[in-house]
Amino acid sequence: MCRIFSSSLVRDLSCNQLSSNNLREMLESTKESLKLEAMKRIVGLIARGKNASELFPAVVKNVASKNIELKKLVYVYLVRYAEEQQDLALLSISTFQRALKDPNQLIRASALRVLSSIRVPIIVPIMMLAIKEAATDLSPYVRKTAAHAIQKLYSLDADQKEQLIEVIEKLLKDKSTLVAGSVVMAFEEVCPDRIDLIHKNYRKLCNLLVDVEEWGQVVIISMLTRYARTQFISPWKESVVENNHEQAFYESDEEKLGTPQSKPYIMDPDHRLLLRNTKPLLQSRNTAVVMSVAQLYWHLAPKQEVGVITKSLVRLLRSHREVQYIVLQNIATMSIQQKGIFEPFMKSFYVRSTDPTHIKTLKLEILTNLANEANISTILREFQTYVKSQDKAFAAATIQAIGRCATNITDVTDTCLNGLVLLLSNRDETVVAESVVVIKKLLQTQPTQHSEIIKHMAKLFDNITVPMARASILWLIGEYCERVPKIAPDVLRKMAKTFTVEEDIVKLQTVNLAAKLYLTNSKQTKLLTQYILNLGKYDQSYDIRDRTRFIRQLIVPNEKSGALSKYARRILLASKPAPMLESTFKDRDRFQLGTLSHTINSKATGYLELSDWPTAAPDSSVRNVEVMEPEWVPSMGKTKPLKSDDKFYSDSGEEEGAGEEGTGSSSEDSSSSSSSSSSNEGKLDSESEDKNSKHSEETDSSQSDKSSGHSDKKKADKKKRLQLKKKAKKAAPKERYQMHRPPTHHPLTQELWNLRTFTPKMVSSPVFVPMSSHELLHRMTGKGLAAQYHFPRQPCIYGNKMVSVQLTLTNSSDHTLEDISIGEKTSSGQNIHRFSSIERLEPGASVTVSMGIDFNDSTQAANFQLCTKEDQFSVSIQPVVGELFLPVTMTEQDFRKEQGKLQGMNETSATITMAPENTSNQALSKKMVSVANMGVVPTGEDSLYRFAAKSVSSGDLVLVSVDLTDSSSGRLTINTEKTVIGSMLLRDLKTALAQP
Amino acid sequence: MIHSLFLINSSSDIFLEKHWKSVISRSVCDYFFEVQEKAGEAENVPPVIHAGHHYLINIYREKIFFVSVIQSEVPPLFVIEFLHHVAETFQDYFGECSESAIKDNVVIVYELLEEMLDNGFPLATESNILKELIKPPNILRSVVNSITGSCNVGETLPTGQLSTIPWRRAGVKYTNNEAYFDVVEEIDAILDKTGSVVFAEIQGVIDACVNLTGMPDLTLSFMNPRLLDDVSFHPCVRFKRWESERVLSFIPPDGNFRLLSYHVSAQNLVAIPIYVKQNISFFETGSSGRLDITVGPKQTMGKTVEAVFVTINMPKVVLSANLTATQGNYTYNPVTKTLVWDIGKLSQQKLPNLKGSLTLQCGAPKPEESPSLNIDLKIQQLAISGLKVNRLDMYGEKYKPFKGVKYVSKAGKFQVRT
């Protein structure tokens, strides 16, 4: 209902001038539902191609919304308009950067998707970093998104190519089936010529292929086709008898005899691997996959093996009309080269009256290609039905096809010709015209004794109105005018009468006929020719005028005519080569089958040529992979079901069992039973090398199974990540260094540097605990109840995001206070852990209780109510910024490194002047740690002091350093991502140090 | 790969556009309109059109053109297959893939398109994954949503996305566990004037509706698997098991899906269930013609042939038909020139016959061509090829599911030439 309501509103809005104002109001309202409604309408506008860009500022505000549907719709909007409103789009970037480190992989992935889809050149460095981070993410889904983002970034800024290739190289090593298709796509787009990146991954890709999702399969197969063409030697014997299978069988012997130096062909095992692993995919339900395997076999398999694809291709003809069209086109090309493989399926190409015209024409083309002496009679009988079709364009195409059969198979030429002549008396004009044209071509190929047919056509001439047909007849009569000496001049006479009303093409042929007759039979036709040439001289078309002038100069002798007229006869009556009646698909084999270029028969943008086979095989050892390759790409972790080797189609029971285990906890008994049911099948074809890698990976992933999957185990997860990161560092120190080197050119990138700080954050015990306490409730206002609070600077036991607070409650009244507790209502948004209620507090007694408050890293006061049995008192705790931290111990080295990551926008500094009391080493440290709960970082330098802490709620690092320039002044620097806290801390510290 | 998508209705209105990369002006569709005009009928529009710097790959479904814009080399089948997938997803979500359904659900359509492609490359196309990401609309949910403000969009990554069996989600639960299989066979045939078979073959599919709890592992075996000559499977079927044992072993997707499509080997003679005697002739003078058609059962293996329709596309000059049918009734549409004879059940005793005269346009010459007859029919409880399911076993779960297999044979592209 809501839907109907909204869509009808959308319609109304289009005619309403005020609509955009209304929408803006809705977007700025506080109600989520109104905002959502507004976004839905805006998406409706976008869908219909209406411009909604003026709402950009209002929309972009909602990018951080908690409502996931609203957020997604804002994303849709952003991606659509960011390019037009680049400056405003930048406002949203920080939200994505935050989302990039969300624990939810879907949110990380969608943030990366949107960030990379915003085509704003200024954020290229941010995108680059985000991609690099995501490429090492634990979630294969996020890595897949990273692979997609590579292409987007490349299209936005091609200069990033080198860096992107590095990422592609890394992702190519990924063992997840989810990533494989996408990264190969990125490879094809960014660096299709870097074949060397594939070597090491070739076998893995071949083995993964069956388990990759369908779309990825298509891309991988076409890439591997290109790869194989450069790496393996041709399996096709260089022989003239390619089409003849039986002979090919004996050929190797002959070759040995003839050329002893040529070795017998042995297929590279990797070549075989590819062919073997793609074959099952011929049974895919996805027609694109079937087609891509078919083209792979066509381009790579030995000729005698290509036959396996035919059945599957013919099956695709049952699919949608559009699929049929493409498949038929490819079959047409194939059937020219190897008609043998499709001949058994000839009847599948029979045309139905309900087929669309372009399908009919293609089927006709294939039938013509398949025609040979044995089946020609069947085909011609079939063609006879087609000629009678209601679809005239198709009937005309059939006549052409008959013509081609007639020229290709000499046995039936006469039959065909007779049949065509019969068609000349057909009532339909197009059929007749087409027949004339085809007969003309046929007669040309056999210019003997066909004067009867020419006479017949001359008789029909008056009734034929189609210009092409008339022109053809005129040409025929002219060409063979000596065979029909009586008829030709008469036809010319008729033409002279109607010359002015004919089409151009007919006029030209009339001029031709006149010229030829003038040369052969000038006695009868001289005047007629003169007359026609005069008519032509004043024709409207300059083509005709030109031709007339030329012919006149050529044939009519006069004083000016040069040497040419001597040769007029030889020029005009030269014997002409017969036209070849060829398939229009003849030259299409220059394109790789299944490609767009093949379909349109011209090179499409981005078409990658299929190279010729190399004459000598390149080194095959490049594809060898060391058994224990250091795998630092985290393909384990959350990837529990994605073990590279558990092929779904594989027959190994063990692998199957493992695959099911990963799919969910409920399937435990299923996996055990199914693995036992099929474990007796041997593992035959998996190589030992594969086994090794598989085992290592299985153990890895089973480990990670335990640690992942549950959101409440985030910590464990984090640790894992940490370990991985460490591993990563070892494996590729160089890259790590690059990634952490801070850029200086753009402050926006800063945030990104800190997306994940994996450095150890060991919370230490506080260095100094100030004893001063603050008043919460005065005994006068509290009617005898006094309360004081104090920050014990201990990690809160109630929640790791809370700051622990100690309350000291004193009863200064003269009666017992009962049921002291914190009220249910808290006015501010903070999360408060209440202390358990105190039943009795005797007069004069006091009690200390502890509570936890999540200040959310701000100095906003926590307001709550302190209740006794009788009364309620509103109180508030305003924390000083220094209490929002927990001290961290770290080495100097770590400190420097972390500091290096928090440059630019994240750095605040000020010059300080210190009270003389504070200049000593100890006093300064003491002053500092009393102001803020920080840990001291040991330093080697005298005048440099360093302190480290992390914010309680978000866990972001806060690094403070004091560099003393002389005894009483120095520079105070604070590096933190929480810039607000940073500047407040700076202020507090500065005043504290200035005071004695 | 796929740059943009335009949905165009039969009156050449672009009613939806979606861009996955930078925006391409809808004027690119002008190329399409030009070709469409030239082609005349919608079916005749070529699927691939070269349009300046772009390439338009389109499909035509349910009276809607799905026109995708491509900028560089891509396998055309990849795009076509994807577009059909989009159409099927709409069908799945909204019950029909019509212009009005798409317009009414434009937000969901947009959300779906957003999930299905990323930068023009397919991201999530499996129906069960999509349904976890974006819930299909229904009245109840939209009412609840409007009150509570909750939404249709899932917050977590669907479980299928990361598993090796992306077609099934974890934690499926049903109170009634059922698995139904429909074996549907279609006879494609061309009969010539005399009734003899020019070409005939059988294509079949097994459509399944599986509502089973947990992660069941099913095995389906046939009495006569050798009949199946060429097969294509849903990705869930283990190919190696089929190769070695000729059984279908699979963990099924949840809900409706096509398990298998097959082709019955050409060596087996195809039983043609009916015969047609026809005589359509036009007279040289008098602007009229005669029509006489008789249909009768032939090889029906003891089953009744139902829902028989005969459709004839008449030549353009035929103005009207004055016929009498001994069974069923006929309609002639003078605009599309189609004669439809709805016969119903075929009985052995009385053969249905349609007889009478045709009126032609005055003065027009007698049509050269002879129209062909398209036949529709249905036979319940019979797979015309003789294929029989032997048994269905379930492993991995403890409960006893309810199982059922249904057979039906239909006419596919069944044509009688005259």
Q: How many DSSP H or I helices of chain B?
A: 8
Q: What structural category characterises the helix and strand content of chain A? A: alpha+beta
| Largest beta-sheet characterization of chain B | 9 strands, mixed
Q: Which percent range describes the beta-strand content of chain A?
A: 5-15%
Overall pLDDT score of chain A: 76
Describe the sheet with the most strands of chain A. 7 strands, antiparallel
Q: How much helix is in the residues of chain A?
A: 40-55%
Widest β-sheet, arrangement of strands of chain B: 11-13-9-8-23-21-16-19-18
Give a description of the structure:
The complex is a heterodimer of chains A (996) and B (418). Chain A has 996 residues and is α+β, with helices and mostly antiparallel strands. In chain A, 51% of the residues lie in helices and 9% in strands. In chain A, the strands form three sheets. In chain A, strands 1, 11, 12, 13, 14, 15 and 16 form a seven-stranded antiparallel sheet that branches. Chain A has a five-stranded antiparallel sheet with strand order 2-3-4-8-6, with no helix packed on it. Chain A is elongated. Residues 1-17, 239-261, 628-714 and 728-760 of chain A have low confidence and may be disordered. Chain B has helices spanning 29-39, 76-94, 99-104, 106-116, 127-133, 139-148, 159-162, 239-245; strands at residues 2-8, 14-19, 48-51, 54-61, 64-70, 117-118, 121-122, 178-191, 197-211, 217-222, 228-233, 247-250, 255-264, 274-282, 288-297, 305-313, 318-325, 329-333, 338-344, 353-360, 373-380, 389-395, 402-416. In chain B, strand 18 (329-333) and strand 19 form a beta hairpin. With 418 residues, chain B is of the alpha+beta class. Chains A and B meet through helix 1, helix 3, helix 5, helix 7 and helix 9 of A and strand 2, strand 4, helix 2, helix 4 and strand 7 of B. Chain A: InterPro entries: AP3_beta, AP3B1/2_C, AP3B_C, AP_beta, ARM-like, ARM-type_fold, B-adaptin_app_sub_C, Clathrin/coatomer_adapt-like_N.
